[in-house]
Structure formats: structure tokens, C-alpha cells
Amino acid sequence: MSAKREKVKRVPLDKSAMKRLMQYILRYKGRVVLVLICIILSSAASVASSLFIETLIDDYISPLLLDANPVFTGLLKALAMMACIYMCGVAASLIYTRTMAVIAQGTLKDIRDDMFKHMQTLPIKYFDTHTHGDVMSRYTNDTDSLRQMIAQSMPQMFDSLVTIVMVFLAMLLTSIPLTLFVIVFIFLMTRVTEQIAGKSSHYFIRQQRSLGDVNGYIEEMINGQKVVKVFCHEEAAKEVFDRKNEELRDCSATANGFSNILMPIMGNMGYLMYVLIAIVGGALAIWQVGNLTLTGVDVLTLGAIGSFLQLSRSFMRPISQVSQQLNSVAMALAGAGRIFELMDEPSESDDGYVTLVNAKRTRDGQLIESSHRTGLWAWRHPHQADGTVTYTELKGQINMYNVDFAYEEGKDVLHDITLYAEPGQKIAFVGATGAGKTTITNLINRFYDIADGKIRYDNININKIKKADLRRSLGIVLQDVNLFTGTVMENIRYGKLDATDEECIAAAKLANADDFISRLPDGYNTMLSGDGSGLSQGQRQLISIARAAVADPPVMILDEATSSIDTRTESIVQRGMDSLMQGRTVFVIAHRLSTIKNSDVIMVLDHGRIIERGSHESLLAEKGKYYQLYTGAFELE
């Protein structure tokens, strides 16, 4: 803990975050106005009841004490009036509290909607450089801190400010000298509050960041639990977690420590002020010192002292509340800053203007756009110069010319890559891990943009094609399968949302997945959860292949698509894959060289360079790296 006590520079609160947050809250202007009115009524009722104490004591209670035959009718009426005032205040408080809960939840829904909507526009690079747990923490912990601030802290702070103003005016109406005494005392309390709140705000900001780090690590450990156990990494994982958790504990303990001592300090100073006012007020009343008020000079009465004591408590209470709520605001604004940080991440840029459309041929062989699915696709190419539109048939020809690429500037992972994939060809990439195989397919998808060179799709510069249309023309089967909560049918339909049940079943049969799906408890209506944890890795992969098959794309990318399937199943799947690949341009990444023997072109990559290319037979004849790989003289890492 001592290492954490170093002197740190105070982190200012993000005022822009509060401004943006208010823009969300003000979407509910009608309810906000209602809340403000109710807060004013509640504060006014509190102040009126305090002022009424002077009238109650001086005009009703004191005369009755001197009367031999007291009549309590007037006193009872006064008490009934006081009760009505309190009831109005309680009703106003109830209304604004419930209304603020509605505003808070509505605001958080809007923020989550906007955050999720913007997240869908972020490039793959963002998710490659941020842990999933940290991103999830912005939806959970950070938004929950906003809920507390909007529903509780903000209305209480406004209530406190309104009460302070009203009580201050009421105190001036009761006694200006005693009011000046209170102001001096409050000034001293404010200085103490600033010091404590200023220190705690920095640690609340660090707490939110540390909490996101812990969540990110937990998410990684949950996903990789099998790996942790296989390599007996439990103790090392616990050590790392303990270190991160200790940092979170230190930040939270320090922040909440400052926060927790604030209320007792404020409370005890309030009691001290209460006693001092009683002593000073009593002395002024006994000595018959003139009492200056906004309405003139009078003698300080017992009722006035009682009323002022109540007002001083009402004055101290909101100041203490503001001091306490500042910590919640600090934590919430730290969370808001992280939320808006995600929202401010630049969206994936897309300057493309060539789109993918359904097409049909006229009698003279010209391509024209069709409003319904025809099975024939074309690139719609608008020309800005003359306003004309031309159509190019989607054939699946992909060429790369002298492509260089680096994930980090100055660290190229691809060097001078040139390849030609003709329509219907099967292109295979072979090489050790890190050679750049998957990177090439990432560039074809435009998950990343190239640093130098050109990529052309049907002789169209790939940068001119809208990303959504480009990716719609590509089908991908990844090594890491992602299944979603829903039925098997819904997971297959993910590849084509308007696919019929018959099309989904046909795709499953093509991928040889129909057999095991039919044996599931509810067949295609079997619910999957937890990323399909009830299925084997091979079964999950078969569903992924069926998902790509139902999309029926002209270009397929198979990234280790059969790596999780046993050899026997692989031969069955491979026949389905061969049917799936008929007439399509296919890029295959595989470690099992037996699966790519029938490829039209095999490219061997090494450290981001293509060192060999050719058919299976020609590469064997060269007796180079591919020959070594195939004969077992050299194994892929």
C-alpha cells in the first residue's frame, strides 16, 4: 500500500463528459421540468415548516404556558397546517424521485444504444487492441455509476442548492448576525471538503480504469480456462490477478476512505455549529441585544432561536449532501469519460461507392439491375463525371499487386505480395504461423487497409467498393468458430437472414452437418447457448461451414476450416467443401497439406514473402520448401 501513496497530480473532472451527458438527459425535457418543480416545492415545504416553528412557539405555545385555562384549538389548527405543509413536501419528493428513476433508465438506454450502434462501426483493429472485458465494463460498471449519479446524486445536488438558497433567505429573515456566524463556519467546512473531495476524485478515476483492467483479465481467463489448466498455469494466473486486484483494492479503498470520512466530519462539525448557535443565540436573547433582520430590528425571541436552529440544520444538511455526492459524481464522470471515449473512437472509414446489386441480362446480353434475387450479381459503378452507371458482372477475380502491409508502423508483415486468382480457382496458402497467411485474407476483406500496392476485385480497385458490399460477396469459415445464443437453424441463417428453412437445411446437407443436427434433441430447433458449448468442436465447425454455404458467395475464404475436425470427419466434410467450392474463387489456409493437393495454385509464404508458387505436382518437382513440408523433412510450426 505504501507504494501507492506517492504524490500524484490531481486529475480534473471531464467537464465535456458532463455537458454531453446533459444532452442525453435533456431528451426528457418534460420530465426534467416536472422534477425541477417538485424539487422546488419540496425545498419550499422544508423551509416553510422551519419558519413556522417561530410562529408556533411565539404565538401558540408560549401564550398557552401562561394561561390558567389553556384552549388548544388554535394550536391544533397550527399543527394541522404544519402537517399539510409536510405532506406536500413528501408528495413532491416522491414524485421527483420516481420520475428521476425513469429519466435515469431512459438515459442509460439511449447511451447503451448509441454506444452499441457506434461499436458496430468500429474497425477490427479496435477489438484487436482492446480486451473484451474492458469494453464490456463500459456497458456494465461505467453505466451503473451513471445510473446512481442521474437517479440520486444530480437531483439531490439540485435539491440541496435550492434548499441552501431558500434557507439562506429564511435565515436572513430570522437573524442576520447569526447568519453571518453560520457563513464563517460554513466557509471553514468548505475548505475541508475541497481538500478531501479533490483527493478522492483522482482515485475514483483510477478505480474505474483499474476495474476495466480487472474485468478484461477475468474475461481472458474464462475464455482460456482450458489452456490455463492444460499448462498448469493456475498459480501464475492467480498471481497476475492478485496484482491487478490489489491495485483495484488500493484505488477503491483510498477513494472510498476519503469519501467515507467526509460525512462524519461534516456531521460532527454540524453538531458543533448547532451548539454554538444555541449558545450565541441564547446569550443575545438574555442580554436583549437587538436582532437585525431583513424586515428591521427586533428582539431575538425563543421562537426565533428555535426556528434558526432548525434552519441551520436544514442549511448544513444540503451542504453535507453536496460534499458526499461530489464523490459519486467524480466516479460517474470517470465512467462517462470511458463511455464517451469509446463513442469518440473513429468509425471504420469507407470511401467506396461501387455497390453490389442483383442483376439480369437483357436479350442483347446487357447487364441491368434487378429488384429481386436472380443468382446473378453485378458491381454497380456510378460515374460522377457524366452521371451514368455501368455494371460489371461479379466473377470473383482477385488480384494483388506489390502489396506491403504492417499492423504497426515500421514493422511490415507482408512484403511485395503479388497474386492472381482467376474466377473459380482454388488458391492455397501454406507457411509457418506468422508467415502472413491470415493477413492476406484480412486485406481482401478490408479489415485492414494496405500500406502500399493495389488489390483489384474484378478489375475494380478494392478501395472503391463499399465495405459492406465487398464483405457480402465473400464467405468466410474461420478456425475459431463463433456461435450465438439461438437455435441451430438461426445460427445457420446468420449467413443469409432471408434464407428459408429449406435453404438452411440444404446448406447443412452440403456441409455434411445434417446428420448430427438431425440427432440433436430438437433437431434444427435445438437451442444453443454459451457459444455452442454442448457441441463438439467439429460439430460447431460444421455449423459454421453450413452458415457460409447458405450465404452462397462467389468467393470463399477457408481459414483452417477443417483443423478442428478429425481425419475421418474431414474426408466427409471435404467432399461437401468441394461441392461448396465448385464455380467459386476459393482461398484456403491449411496446415494439413493433404487438403490442398487439388488446389490450382499453392503459395508458400515465409516471413511475409511468397517464396514458392505453383501446383502441387510442380512444387514437389522443385524440391523446395513445399517438398520438405510435404515429405516431412520440415514441419510447420
Detail the topology: elements first, then pairings.
Elements: H1 15-25, H2 29-66, H3 73-119, H4 124-129, H5 132-139, H6 141-174, H7 176-223, H8 225-230, H9 234-286, E1 290-293, E2 296-299, H10 302-343, E3 355-361, E4 367-369, E5 377-382, E6 389-393, E7 398-408, E8 411-421, E9 426-431, H11 437-444, E10 452-457, E11 460-461, H12 467-472, E12 474-477, E13 486-487, H13 488-493, H14 501-510, H15 514-518, E14 527-528, H16 537-551, E15 555-559, H17 567-581, E16 585-589, E17 601-606, E18 609-614, H18 616-622, H19 625-631
Parallel strand pairs: 9-16, 9-17, 12-15, 15-16
Antiparallel strand pairs: 1-2, 3-4, 3-5, 5-6, 7-8, 7-10, 10-11, 13-14, 17-18
What can you see in these coordinates?
This protein is of the alpha+beta class and 637 residues long. It folds into three domains: 2-343, Up-down Bundle (ABC transporter transmembrane region fold); 355-393, no CATH class; 398-631, P-loop containing nucleotide triphosphate hydrolases (Rossmann fold, 3-Layer(aba) Sandwich). It is built from 19 helices and 18 strands. The chain has helices spanning 15-25, 29-66, 73-119, 124-129, 132-139, 141-174, 176-223, 225-230, 234-286, 302-343, 437-444, 467-472, 488-493, 501-510, 514-518, 537-551, 567-581, 616-622, 625-631, and strands at 290-293, 296-299, 355-361, 367-369, 377-382, 389-393, 398-408, 411-421, 426-431, 452-457, 460-461, 474-477, 486-487, 527-528, 555-559, 585-589, 601-606, 609-614. A six-stranded mixed beta sheet has the order 12-15-16-9-17-18, with helices on both faces. Strands 4-3-5-6 form a four-stranded antiparallel beta sheet. A hairpin with a 2-residue loop joins β10 and β11 (460-461). The longest helix is centred in the middle third of the chain and has 53 residues, at 234-286. It is elongated and about 125 Å long.
